[in-house]
Design brief:
The structure holds 2 protein chains of 2 kinds.
Chain A (H helix, E strand, L loop, with lengths): L3 E6 L4 E5 L10 H12 L13 E5 L13 E6 L6 E6 L3 H7 L2 E7 L8 E6 L2 E6 L8 H11 L5 E4 L2 H4 L7 E4 L5 E4 L4 H7 L2 E6 L11 H17 L1 H9 L4 H8 L20 H10 L3 E4 L10 E5 L5 E4 L3 H10 L5 H14 L3 H13 L8 H12 L4 H7 L2 H8 L6 E2 L2 E2 L9 H9 L12 H4 L15 H18 L6 H6 L3 H13 L5 H22 L11 H4 L13 H5 L5
Helix pairs in contact in A: 1-18, 1-21, 6-20, 10-11, 10-12, 11-13, 12-15, 13-14, 16-18, 18-21
Chain B lengths: L1 E6 L10 E5 L6 H7 L7 E6 L2 E2 L11 E6 L5
The chains are: A alpha+beta, B mainly beta.
């Protein structure tokens, strides 16, 4: 079955299946969403208007038996940052779309009236149906309803109330194998889906499968690749403690942003650590290890139960726990799990929202550490779209402007995640230069600066950091195109058999002959495509900067500042 | 001399989370790892007073010394 582009026009309510243009054939995941956005979206368009497009694409290896290949990419012009944006997640959708021969789902235009719709996608194409029942409902209700309408195995892409209300921190939620959620979290793509008046997308892959050009070569490469992943100690640690294992090491390093980025260590760190979370999960009969998609061998997710042993939430990531925890000075893991669960339901980014809460706390809207009030605000204000709810739901920058706060940790208006660049200097380069606003995953220098993976770099020194961030951003853009979870990177950086096996799988899938250089060039060209879009949208090198306070306010315990000059930062783009 | 030792993740199993220990002057970071029956191959990160150190670093009075296995995330 040949892959096609599935196109949906929400102005005329028409759909079509198209041949894949030659320029797009070698792309998948982020490479494909960014290529399409750059080709078809006017960079100066309003992100919530009819000229923005939402592109949803599986990765190049999604739908195959390749381990860890189930990531889906969503792309658009971001209502939060105004830049090009790609946000990816695990769950069941990438595999479903790949199996039904959908190379990319492009959603364009905008209904002129107030009617809402849901989409239904099969290998035959897309149908657009009016949606009334689910409007105003949370994501859990959407999945329950769609499973009844279709079958239990239906794939689901959905927005919560926050996406319906077009909040800039609204996410797109992807159903996971347990009918819970993974999130395309950053950058407000839920608002773009909401601006197209689409509440949900049901994916019915049927019995279809992905074509593999050389099945034997694929199987052999996958064996090597899987072994490299499973054998690596980081994979094993992630499988035991989740990404939340990072709380204690980042805190120890003095780069754990606390109380709206005013301190580098948090007194309550042990109570929200991965070690503590692991023990609580086991005690309550949850699962400390859990795969967010079929075929993942790292299984960093978890099933977290409440004190009564009932399901509360899954996929509690380090960055989310950091934001709700140290940044807001909350040390109650159960309250954090409650917030995580609410944010899954109402469909809002757990990083952006919590960073926004911390800025709101600094602005006096609520007290630092008041987790009960955070829960109330999520349920009664954000979910209902009150003035306070919309303020916080539009992200940290918006809250800062609303309350006159100067210490607002954002780059290109996106909230800075869980690593303070004053104590971990390289990540500051990633935050500043990433084409998507402050984003830790774009070029995860933490691996080298703190964790000693793929080499070492002194986190308090500027030396080598620009090059480190650049190399990681290039590699990440390429990995983001394959449908692979970024957590394969630890094995890929340390185990020499891992990356060649990944390339062998790409070659065996498509009957091509990529080399390591081709993969590097792919990463570079994706970054350049994104950078060009941003420039045309009005961004300059002056937007590749961190907020002023990082240079002027030393952070304890190291009393360090982030001291890169503009010229030094700008050398990032010398490639 | 007194040093505060901190262990993390599975290094805590059968050992401790935090402990103040009396050590002889000139003890190295590596020697402490050995004395805890931790395989040096399993060590991921060593931090002394919130700065990375290695097995050869000599500990001083009042130091805080953290020992992590290989971990990751993001």
């Amino acid at each position: 079955m040949a892959d096609k582009i599935f196109r949906v026009n929400m102005t005329d309510l028409t759909t079509s299946l198209e041949e894949i243009p030659a320029d797009w054939a070698g792309h998948g995941g982020r490479g494909l969403t960014s290529t399409i956005i750059a080709a078809e979206v006017p960079p100066t368009c309003h992100p919530l208007g009819p000229n923005n497009k939402l592109v949803i694409a599986p990765g190049l290896l999604s739908g195959t038996a390749a381990s860890n290949s189930g990531r889906i990419s969503c792309g658009a012009k971001s209502p939060l940052t105004g830049t090009i944006k790609e946000s990816n997640a695990g769950g069941t959708s990438a595999q479903a779309l790949a199996k039904m021969g959908c190379k990319a789902l492009i959603i364009e235009g905008q209904p002129k009236d107030d009617i809402w719709y849901s989409l239904h996608v099969t290998s035959e194409g897309v149908t657009i149906e009016k949606e009334e029942e689910l409007i105003g409902k949370g994501n859990f209700a959407v999945v329950e309803a769609l499973e009844k309408r279709n079958s239990e195995s239906v794939g689901v892409i959905t927005i919560g109330q926050c996406g319906e209300m077009l909040m800039s921190a609204a996410n797109i939620s992807i159903k996971d194998p347990d009918s819970h959620f993974r999130s395309c979290g950053r950058g407000g793509l839920g608002a773009v889906m909401g601006s197209k008046k689409i509440k949900s997308i049901a994916l019915d892959a049927g019995d279809n499968n992905v074509d593999i050009a050389d099945k034997d070569a694929f199987k052999a490469a996958n064996k090597i690749f899987t072994k490299a992943l499973v054998d690596h100690p980081v994979s094993q640690a992630l499988g035991t403690y989740g990404s939340n294992v990072l709380v204690n090491i980042i805190n120890e390093s003095g780069g754990f942003p606390t109380k709206n980025f005013s301190l580098g260590q948090f007194e309550g760190h042990e109570k929200i650590s991965g070690e503590t979370m692991h023990d609580i999960i086991v005690e309550r009969g949850g699962k400390p290890t859990h795969a967010c998609h079929k075929g993942c061998v790292i299984k960093c997710s978890q099933i977290f139960n409440d004190i009564k042993g009932k399901y509360k939430t899954s996929g509690m990531e380090y960055e989310s726990i950091w934001a709700m925890g140290a940044d807001c000075t909350v040390d109650n893991l159960d309250d954090i799990a409650e917030m995580d669960s609410i944010m899954d339901d109402i469909g809002i980014d757990s990083i952006e929202t919590a960073v926004a809460f911390a800025v709101a706390m600094e602005g006096g809207a609520l007290d630092f550490g008041d987790s009960k009030e955070m829960i109330r605000v999520l349920k009664d204000e954000i979910a209902r779209g009150t003035a306070l709810g919309r303020t916080i739901g539009n992200g940290a920058g918006h809250v800062g402007r609303t309350y006159g706060v100067a210490r607002v940790p954002v780059v290109k208006n996106q909230g800075i995640p869980a690593y303070d660049p004053r104590a971990i200097k390289g990540i500051g380069i990633t935050y500043a230069t990433s084409t998507q606003g402050a984003d830790h995953t774009m070029g995860y220098t933490i691996a080298t600066e703190i964790l000693g993976v793929g080499g070492t770099a002194d986190p308090l020194s500027k030396e080598g950091q620009v090059e480190l961030s650049r190399n990681l951003q290039i590699a990440t853009a390429a990995i983001d195109s394959t449908g692979m979870c970024l957590f394969i990177a630890f094995a890929a950086l340390d185990d020499g058999t891992c990356l060649p096996a990944l390339i062998d799988m790409l070659n065996a899938r498509f009957g091509i002959e990529l080399t390591t250089d081709d993969v590097t060039n792919l990463g570079m060209s994706i970054l350049k495509t994104e950078h060009a879009f941003n420039k045309a949208a009005g961004f300059t090198n002056l937007d590749d900067r961190l907020p002023e306070f990082f240079a002027t306010e030393p952070i304890p315990p190291h009393n360090a500042v982030w001291d890169f000059t503009g010229e030094e930062i700008d050398t990032f783009w010398n490639f | 001399m007194q040093v505060q030792l901190k262990l993390f993740a599975f290094f805590r199993e059968g050992r401790f989370i935090k402990e103040d220990r009396e050590l002889t002057e000139g003890t190295s970071a590596g020697e402490v790892v050995d004395s805890l029956d931790i395989d040096r191959e399993e060590v991921g990160v060593l931090m002394l007073n919130s700065r990375h150190c290695d097995f050869d670093t000599i500990l001083q009075e009042g130091d805080t010394y953290a020992i992590f296995p290989v971990i990751g995330g993001g």
